[in-house]
Design brief:
The structure is a homodimer. Chain A is α+β, with helices and mostly antiparallel strands. Chain A has four helices and four strands, in the order ββαααββα.
């Protein structure tokens, strides 16, 4: 079993009253890219239909242009894919997460000395 | 009214099955330092008695030595203060939060161009 990380970092990008992007939305975009289906993506993440729709709707109103587009010929005849903007948003968000993780890795490791055995 | 930040970063330090430190625990330590009372700290944060006790208990079992100590002469005869370790843990955690924020500030600002007006 892989050792679980010492530090969890959760990053969210705000847009008005809601979050345009966060870990759940990024995972959903990634799963849509991988499965080429919104329904399959939700299933892969164990996310309810309504949760999936809710996250997609929050992204729809937050970004300048669509991140997800319908395709033909996917599972059950109707699939989905990321737009170019969707790909870029996902990559940029993952880069932000990585940058934060790299920046604090040593500080977090130092913190370990305070913890009980 | 101050503009709300574009990015929220939540950092938690894990210890075994629980979190040794996170935003709520750091705020509690800070409020104890400011108010010199566990009860007053909880009130200041709008935190229930049980929540306050729960966070203190999680910190108690996570760190090598106590972060909080009882004092005499505080509010209602019994106060509290941070130990030297408590001060150091709080400062180090805030430094980790700041380091993450600094590291991603520019990337997050770039991300803003994707967002709807």
């Amino acid at each position: 079993m892989a050792e679980r990380p010492l530090v969890y970092i959760k990053i969210r990008i705000r847009h008005g009253e809601i979050y345009a992007m966060g870990p759940g939305k990024a995972d959903l975009l990634q799963a849509i890219r991988d499965t080429r289906s919104i329904a399959a993506a939700g299933r892969q993440l164990g996310m309810s239909y309504w949760k999936t729709r809710h996250l997609l709707e929050e992204m729809r109103v937050s970004f300048r242009q669509p991140l997800v587009t319908a395709t033909r010929g996917g599972e059950q005849g109707g699939g989905a894919a990321l737009t170019d903007l969707g790909d870029e948003v996902l990559e940029r968000f993952r880069a932000i997460e990585r940058a934060a993780g790299v920046a604090i890795a040593d500080l977090a490791e130092d913190f370990r000395t305070f913890l009980a055995d």
